[in-house]
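The protein record quoted for completeness.
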Amino acid sequence: MMTDLAGLTALITGAAGGIGTAMAESFAAAGARLALVDVEDAAALAERLGPQHRAFRIDLQDPETIRTTVARIGDEMGLDILVNNAGLGIVFPLEETDVEAWDRTMRINLRAPWLMAAAALPYLKASGRGRIINLSSQAGIVAIADHAAYGASKAGLINLTMIMALEWARFGITANAIAPTVVETPMAVIGWSGEKGEQARREIPVGRFAKPGEIAAGAVFLASAGAAMVNGTTLVIDGGYTIR
């Protein structure tokens, strides 16, 4: 029962998306009470998973909304686990200096996890076994063409995770990242269709993309009592892509 999360509250951002939904289902199955956060309405998901779960709409580009929403969740539900799952995947060639796309990517992929964690800190301290899990990417570990903004944001998130782990371990909090390969969400199936997708699969030693549930399983492990000594690391779930 090392992955038993009964009695704990998990806040999951990007909960209405493919990976977020798998996260919500897996954390609920492990017994956690969920605060499902998304810019879209996650109320139907919360209702489907059970009456103890709640949905909150939030714009992760708005620091004040982050602060007030996290405080509301912490005050009303408690907060033991923060999963910074939400992310933005804009890609473009390096020479195309799309400043707004770059800045928006950084606001959502890098600044928002920092602000979410800072807002959650008082509640994670009170928990005595707080967990922060940040969703990075294989693009934060190796260079991938057209992924300058995305890759830089995800590499920054890995470093940010290590700093969280270093500074906050004394409060009983661990911080870890997950770096997946392409995950078979509805959007990814469209974006990686045809020969582009086939080539990408050939470059992964196991020969396929990851499934959302596989990423969620890694997050549940990192949130569990069995991972209490795992701190400041990046769990790479990429089928071996980054070992080449």
User: Anything to note?
Assistant: The mean pLDDT is 96. The chain has one domain: 9-236. The domain at 9-236 is CATH 3.40.50.720 (Rossmann fold). The chain has eight helices and seven strands.
